[in-house]
Amino acid sequence: MAAHLIRRSFLGLLAMCLMTACASAPAPAPAGDTSAEPAAVVRLFLVRHGEKEAGSDPALTAAGAVRAKALAELLKDEGVTEVWSTQTRRTQQTAAPLAVQRGLQVQPYDASTLPAFASWLKDAPGVKLVVGHSNTTDALAALLGADPGPAIVEAAEFDRLYIISIDESGIVRSRIERYGAASPMSAE
Question: Strands 126-132 and 82-85: what pairing?
Answer without folding.
Answer: parallel
